[in-house]
Known about the structure:
Blueprint: E1 2-4, E2 11-25, E3 31-44, E4 51-59, E5 62-70
Antiparallel strand pairs: 1-2, 2-3, 2-4, 4-5
Amino acid sequence: LTIFPNPTHSSFIINNQGLTKLAIYDLNGSLLISTMVEGKEAISVSKLPVGIYIVKIMMEGSVITKRLVVE
């Protein structure tokens, strides 16, 4: 599972296998974006202000957490 580019300006690409739930949180824990993705898909973050975000990817009973920087 990969997320690129990171840092990003307007969108990033998630490359995974199968159907996955993706959630983006700010550092206060507020949910900002929640969506389902499958395969290679672009996720727009153009409406988010510059900052650091937490991306949680939930798939097949496991949770992967990554940091995303929006410049």
